[in-house]
Amino acid sequence: MLHSALLHPWLKPLVFMTCAVFLSTPPVWAEDPVTNADPTLESFPAPAADYERHVIRLPVGNYENNLKIELLPGKVQETDCNPQHYTGLFQEKTLEGWGYNYYELSELNGPISTKMACPDNQQTLQFIPVHSNGSLLQYNSRLPVVVYLPKGLELRWRTWVATPYNTAPTE
Fold it and tell me: Is 38-161 a domain of CATH 3.40.50.300?
């Protein structure tokens, strides 16, 4: 009983001060876009005049060696019943001195379409993709995926998961 009576005068101010300090400091996970800017993103070049920079921050995945990310650039526009797409060339570039890779879409052509007669001649809004080489990338959640696209295009992406290995029989 004597022991708790001696601690009691010190315990209330100590708890009060601890709570005051804890509540007055911002949490570590608070996002401040000015001070917590991604330092790796600052090292990438600024986009050219007719390009925009798109950044994908991948979530941490289980068994990332079995994952791939597919880049799907394209544009939403009015189309008829004919299938349409753009063509382009994805170039993988390396950031000098850092070793980080980034991607640039060039040689954009289109839209390319079939010329079938549409019976109702109705127009609908659809996402028209850019068919290109090199749009399937290794999944890496530690670095952002930085892609430079011509203005007016948007970037969609999806994740692919590998199935277990199979052995082909010899014949």
Answer: no
Residue range 6-56, pLDDT digits in tens: 555 655 665 555 555 445 545 444 444 443 456 567 888 899 999 999 999
Q: DSSP secondary structure string, the chain?
A: -HHHHHHHHHHHHHHHHHHHHHHHSPPTT---TTTT--HHHHTSPPPPTTEEEEEE-PPP-TTGGGEEEEEEEEEEEEE-SS-EEEEEEEEEEE-TTT--EEEEEEEEEEEEE--PPPSS---EEEEEEEEEES-EEE--TTS-EEEEEETT-EEEEEEEEPPPP--PPP-
> How does pLDDT run across 42-51, given as a tens digit for each residue?
888 899 999 9
